[in-house]
Amino acid sequence: MRQSGDALFASSDLSYILRCNVAAAAKAVDALPPEDVLNCAVNDLVERVLKGHRRPILELSEGNSICQEPPEEQHMSGPPTARAASARGCVRSFRLPFKGDGSMFDARASSWQSRVPHGRVEGQELVLSFHCTNETPQQIKAALDDELSMVRQCIGAVNEDISQHNALLEGHVRDALTRRRSALERDRGITAALGYPVRRRENAPSTYALPLVRRKIAAGSPSVTPCPTPDPVFPDIEYEHVLNVVSQMVEVMERSPRAFAGLDEEALRFHFLVQLNGQYEGGATGETFNYEGKTDILVRHEGRVLLIAECKFWNGPHSLKEALAQLQKYTCWRDTKTAVILFNRDKDFTRVLGQIPEELRKHPDCEGEVEKMGESRFRVRLLRTDDPQLRLLVTVLAFNVPAVRSE
User: Fold this and answer.
1) Directed axis angle between helix 236-255 and helix 265-280, to 10°?
2) pLDDT digits over 247-278, tens only?
3) Are 242 and 307 in contact (CB under 8 A)?
4) How many Å apart are CA 178 and CA 182, to the nearest integer?
5) What pLDDT score does 292 carry?
6) What pLDDT sits at residue 29?
7) Contact assessment for residue 312 and residue 323, using Cβ atoms and an 8 Å cutoff
8) Res 334: pLDDT
9) Banded model confidence at residue 2, pLDDT cuts 50, 70, 90
10) Angle CA 258–280–270, to nearest 5
């Protein structure tokens, strides 16, 4: 009795296949839309890339899943002699379903043996065949068990290499994302610093579209004069979206301290404006007059103010008090959602985070409790001094931005 079929786990180099997979994952990172790289959570981007590049392991479905095909009779060509008659027999084939990538049955792992099993892959089945003559059922079963033992050993070696590759692949993807995000931030920082208007590409993808809010007119009332489009109300989900864009920008600053350590408040504000304009198509401006003063960051849609934010370096509790006073001064009755962005440099950041909610509670216009929305994000509602029926929603975001260190 002899084996039939091609040699398995021998025709391709698994290490080369896995290196190519790492390169393909890096290309997938480069193919991500720039706005996604800059604004989406890193973990989400990593999972998006890994989803298409994790290599599945091989799993045989053995036991009752093994089935045999009807024997295929074989004949020797030539004149009928005693030797030819004795060589006549049949091919017995056994099919084993498996899960995973069938091409891995051709791959040679880093740990391999000179003797390999033989067979072929058809769809999601491994076929093991034997040319039999006068063997007993016990001998055929013993040969099948021996071949299966070699297959299992080879699958174990392949899966060990694949598992190690998958474990290291996440690190490769994160490194590639960090490099690309840093490059995009550097390029956009230079663009913002140059000060020239940027022409939007006609085919640039739209990453965000603000919904139009229109008042519905009741049907069957022809005598009623249609109302004009009301002032836009910034939905909570979009408010949180803007705050997340700001948070992700600061995450980049914290991961690339040398690139941002020497920037002043105005330069830091430029980086936020670049990101917000990528979402709101030029609707975000800085140092803009509104109501009774100039606010640091202002987001508009169709000429209406949607968000007002003040940026401050933390120099004690009075920094937050000053920012809140400015927000109250710069907002009219239509403006309801605001933010304070606090930059802390080389101070006890834990102590600063403890002082922020205390300062908010002490504010004379504070209504209700101070909500802690995250490790360094707090929210409060302030009474409007110009209209007691309205409330001003304020979110305070505090970030630890490194300072220039002397060598």
Assistant:
1) 130
2) 877 777 766 666 666 667 677 767 777 667 65
3) yes
4) 6
5) 42
6) 93
7) yes
8) 60
9) confident
10) 30
Q: Give pLDDT, residue 206.
A: 42
Mean pLDDT of the region 14-40: 89
Query: Cβ contacts of residue 51 below 8 Å, gap of 6+?
Result: none
The span from the CA of 185 to the CA of 337, in Å, is: 27
How far apart CA 39 and CA 280 sit, in angstroms, is 13
For 162, the enclosing helix (H) or strand (E) is helix 137-194
**Given the structure tokens 């690309």, which residue do they identify?**
180
Average pLDDT value for the chain: 76
Give the gyration radius of the chain's Cα atoms: 34
Cβ atoms of 337 and 239 closer than 8 Å = yes
How far apart are the C-alpha atoms of 406 and 401, rounded to whole Å?
A: 16
Q: How far is CA 254 from CA 56, 103, 210, 315, in A?
A: 35, 43, 30, 19
The highest-confidence range among 15-29, 241-255, 313-327, 371-385, by mean pLDDT, is 15-29
pLDDT at residue 256, as a whole number: 66
Phi and psi torsions of 338, nearest 5°: -140, 175
Query: Which of 263, 313, 318, 306 minimizes the C-alpha distance to 281?
Result: 306
Query: How far apart are the C-alpha atoms of 272 and 252, rounded to whole Å?
Result: 11
Q: At what angle do helices 42-51 and 14-31 cross, to 10 degrees?
A: 130
C-beta separation of 254 from 401 below 8 A: yes
Q: How far apart are CA 81 and CA 350, in angstroms?
A: 95
Contacts of 366 (CB under 8 A, 6+ apart): 360, 380, 381, 382, 383
- How does strand 304-313 pair with strand 107-108? unpaired
Q: Is 115 helix (H, G, I), strand (E, B) or coil?
A: coil
Residue 294: both structure tokens together: 């100039």
Placement of tokens 């002699």 in the chain? 81
pTM of the predicted model, to two decimals? 0.48
Nearest of 14, 264, 50 to residue 156 by alpha carbon: 14
Query: What's the mean pLDDT in 324-339?
Result: 76
Q: How many residues does the chain have?
A: 407
